[in-house]
């Protein structure tokens, strides 16, 4: 069955792979991004997830083009790393606003139509560091840990309406961002990972595709690690 899908941060990296996976499976996809070009075949909508009005407008555009949104992937996120003694208020606030507040705005808008239709799949993009921790990423790790509480609270709140909320927690993934890192850094990532390699964006898209399928209707409030064994669920 073709579903109406909205993905935030779908213009590159993990988000782009997810958009392309849904398109390949015949779904109608809206890619809501803050700049950049949406993948071919997707409806591209400019959206800053820290602005509730822009999130509402993105959903409205997706609904007008594809019907009520049935699957939402809250993928938009940023990093602004630094040790806590040097981390500025601006670094903290920026990451909290995009990674946490943006997911809240996205989930709140998604639930409105999903409640009426008594069907929905919401996936938050977490991270292994949300459970594992990482020096220099207290802001980022905090947001990713908070998404677990968000998914589980929403599961208890509206789970009876046929809506699921889950978190995918990637480990070290090969993307445009990691491609520019020095070899010694990426080698370090691989050495920490029991699988002995970095993951691919398709590894993440595979997990998302499963969690949003009809076959995953009895899975909610779960954290699915896709990290080669790095975090082992922690």
TrEMBL record:
<dbReference type="InterPro" id="IPR002347">
    <property type="entry name" value="SDR_fam"/>
</dbReference>
<dbReference type="GO" id="GO:0016616">
    <property type="term" value="F:oxidoreductase activity, acting on the CH-OH group of donors, NAD or NADP as acceptor"/>
</dbReference>
<comment type="similarity">
    <text>Belongs to the short-chain dehydrogenases/reductases (SDR) family.</text>
</comment>
<keyword id="KW-0560">Oxidoreductase</keyword>
<protein>
    <submittedName>
        <fullName>SDR family oxidoreductase</fullName>
    </submittedName>
</protein>
<dbReference type="Pfam" id="PF13561">
    <property type="entry name" value="adh_short_C2"/>
</dbReference>
<feature type="domain" description="Ketoreductase">
    <location>
        <begin position="3"/>
        <end position="176"/>
    </location>
</feature>
<dbReference type="InterPro" id="IPR036291">
    <property type="entry name" value="NAD(P)-bd_dom_sf"/>
</dbReference>
<dbReference type="InterPro" id="IPR057326">
    <property type="entry name" value="KR_dom"/>
</dbReference>
């Amino acid at each position: 069955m073709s579903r109406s899908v909205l993905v935030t941060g779908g213009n590159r990296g993990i988000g782009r792979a997810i958009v392309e996976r849904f398109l390949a499976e015949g779904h109608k996809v809206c890619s809501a991004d803050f700049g950049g070009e949406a993948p071919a075949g997707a409806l591209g909508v400019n959206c800053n997830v820290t602005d509730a009005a822009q999130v509402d407008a993105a959903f409205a555009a997706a609904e007008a083009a594809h019907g009520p949104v049935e699957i939402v992937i809250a993928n938009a996120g940023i990093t602004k790393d630094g040790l806590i003694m040097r981390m500025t208020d601006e670094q903290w606030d920026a990451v909290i606003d995009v990674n946490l507040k943006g997911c809240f705005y996205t989930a709140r808008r998604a639930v409105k139509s999903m409640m009426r239709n008594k069907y929905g799949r919401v996936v938050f993009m977490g991270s292994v560091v949300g459970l594992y921790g990482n020096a220099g990423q207290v802001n980022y790790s905090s947001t990713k840990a908070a998404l677990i509480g968000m998914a589980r609270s929403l599961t208890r709140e509206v789970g009876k309406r046929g809506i699921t909320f889950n978190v995918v927690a990637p480990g070290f993934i090969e993307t445009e961002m990691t491609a520019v890192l020095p070899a010694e850094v990426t080698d370090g990532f691989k050495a920490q990972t029991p699988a002995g390699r970095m993951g691919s964006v398709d590894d993440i898209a595979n997990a998302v595709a499963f969690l949003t399928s009809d076959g995953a209707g009895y899975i909610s409030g779960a954290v699915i690690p896709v990290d080669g064994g790095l975090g082992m669920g922690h």
